[in-house]
Amino acid sequence: MSRPGLFITFEGIDGAGKSSHIEGLATAFRAQGRAVTVSREPGGTPLAEKLREMVLNDPMDALTESLLIFAARRDHLRNVIEPALARGDVVLCDRFTDATFAYQGAGRGFDLDVLSILERLAQTGLSPEADLMREPDLTVWFDLAPEVAAERLAGARVPDRFEAQPVEFFRRVAQGYADRAAAAPQRFARLDAAQDRHRVWQQLTSVFVRKGWLAIMVASQGGPQ
Ligand SMILES: Nc1ncnc2c1ncn2[C@@H]1O[C@H](COP(=O)(O)OP(=O)(O)O)[C@@H](O)[C@H]1O
Ligand SMILES: Cc1cn([C@H]2C[C@H](O)[C@@H](COP(=O)(O)OP(=O)(O)O)O2)c(=O)[nH]c1=O
């Protein structure tokens, strides 16, 4: 019998170090015989990537932004995430709905109750269990002080509309993530992202080993040098 799919998301403020580790984790899962789908939000389908370009570059009010992000998310769920989970893949997704609560909710101050309604609308009715609202099986939260993230990003890449925000914005976003983690402690795994890359990788793989999703040997494989 094939193994059930796993839906794993990666969250944290810009510059926390998520992208540095996702490919390494995909390699570790593949080395242990699992099929892996790597994706990101906003994005992951042709339509959602178009919406991403708008969200990251065009000024808009917070409701418009939230509607576009959830539209992109539904398209991504329908066309990529749900089919991959149905095949039994491990789905590794760089950001998901916690980012909307953290950035649009806590960061921009948009109404969290409206976000909850949009979440239910966008994430329900797509899997064989009609009433299921799709949520991650695990969310890895790269927790890092905004000042440290800003230092890491300075000069590293051209900032998008969010990355160009002042540090106070990221303090609110970081608090938004802390609130989401406190509300669903069984789903979240917090990493101390201030440590060096190797230690962050060790923390990351030990979460998966503890869950029984990776064998212990991978701790020395696949991670960033
Ligand atoms: N543990 C770390 N210590 C120092 N710098 C890091 C660490 N992890 C990532 N970086 C660097 O910080 C920047 C942001 O990392 P990245 O993985 O792109 O973050 P994110 O995807 O969370 O925005 C990159 O320049 C990356 O090389
Ligand atoms: C998924 C998501 C992302 N975002 C923002 C956070 C990031 O600043 C930006 C893009 O995320 P990300 O892909 O992490 O950026 P990069 O590839 O440049 O590291 O979109 C939201 O504001 N709301 C959301 O729901």
UniProtKB/TrEMBL annotation:
Pfam families: Thymidylate_kin. The keyword Aminoacyl-tRNA synthetase does not apply. Residues 10-200 form the Thymidylate kinase-like domain. Its EC number is 2.7.4.9. Keywords: ATP-binding, Kinase, Nucleotide biosynthesis, Nucleotide-binding, Transferase. It comes from Acidovorax facilis. The gene is tmk. InterPro entries: P-loop_NTPase, Thymidylate_kin-like_dom, Thymidylate_kinase. Belongs to the thymidylate kinase family. ATP binds at residues 12-19. This is Thymidylate kinase. The keyword Acyltransferase does not apply. Gene3D superfamilies: P-loop containing nucleotide triphosphate hydrolases. GO terms for molecular function: dTMP kinase activity. It catalyses: dTMP + ATP = dTDP + ADP. Phosphorylation of dTMP to form dTDP in both de novo and salvage pathways of dTTP synthesis. It comes from the Bacteria.
